[in-house]
Amino acid sequence: MSEIGLTRAQWWVLAKLYFHDGVTQSVLAAELGFTKAAIGPLLDRLGANGWLKRRPHPDDKRARCVFRTAKAESLMKRMKKIAVAMNSDLIRGLSEDEQQTLMRLLYRIRTNLVSD
C-alpha cells in the first residue's frame, strides 16, 4: 500500500468504511482489533489527508461516527484494483475446491482470533 501512501492499518480502516460507512469509532476499533486509544490517532491521520470525516453520533453524545469522503472514493478504486491483483497472485494455481477450502479455513482462523 505504500505506493498509494497508506499504511496497512489505514488500508484496513478505509476498506472497512467502504462496506460500513458511518460506523462508530468504537465499533471500528473493535472490528479491526485496535484499542480505542490506537484508533484515534489513526483516524486523525486519515482525516488530515482528507480521506474521512468524523461526526457526532445522532443518538449518543459520547460516540463519533466515521465516514469516508469523496476524496476517498478515487482512492478506494485504486485500493480495489491492487487488492484484486494481489488476491489473484496469492491464489494462482489453486483449484476452485482448494480456494474454497482456503477461504473456509481462513474464516475459521479469523473467528478464533476474534473470539479470544
So how many helices?
5
Question: Strand arrangement, largest sheet?
Answer: 1-2
Q: Give the count of structural domains.
A: 1
The shape is: globular
Order of helices and strands: HHHEEHH
Structural class: mainly alpha
Q: How would you state the average pLDDT, rounded?
A: 89
CATH topology: Arc Repressor Mutant, subunit A
CATH architecture: Orthogonal Bundle
What percentage of the residues does DSSP assign to strands (E)? 5-15%
Distance between the termini: 29 Å
Count of β-strands:
2
The main β sheet shows up as:
2 strands, antiparallel
Catalogue the unreliable spans: none
Can you say what the CATH homologous superfamily is? Answer: Winged helix-like DNA-binding domain superfamily/Winged helix DNA-binding domain
CATH class: Mainly Alpha
Give the helix level as a range of percent: 55-70%
Task: From the alpha carbons, calculate the radius of gyration and give it in angstroms.
Answer: 16 Å
In short:
The protein is mainly alpha-helical and 116 residues long. It contains 5 helices and 2 strands. 10% of the residues are buried.
